[in-house]
Amino acid sequence: MSASEFQQIKTYILGVLATYNIHNVTDDQALFSSGMLDSLAAVQILTQLETDFNIDLADEDFDINHIDSLQALENFLASRKN
């Protein structure tokens, strides 16, 4: 995944956060385990990743912690890079 592709994903996630009136999120700040985002937001983000970025997240071993922060998401996506 290129830096520009990840930036698109990050921009999308920051947009989701903005709808929850959450701004100024750091790359290592917990999003889900902190309660900042809920399961509906997780579904939105996962759907966006699968649809717009053609990322298959149907893995049985997937854990919400893989996307709990922007840094965790970047690491997760890098590990799934073809």
UniProtKB/TrEMBL annotation:
InterPro entries: ACP-like_sf (IPR036736), PP-bd_ACP (IPR009081). Residues 1-81 form the Carrier domain. It holds the Pfam family PP-binding. This is Carrier domain-containing protein. It comes from Paenochrobactrum glaciei.
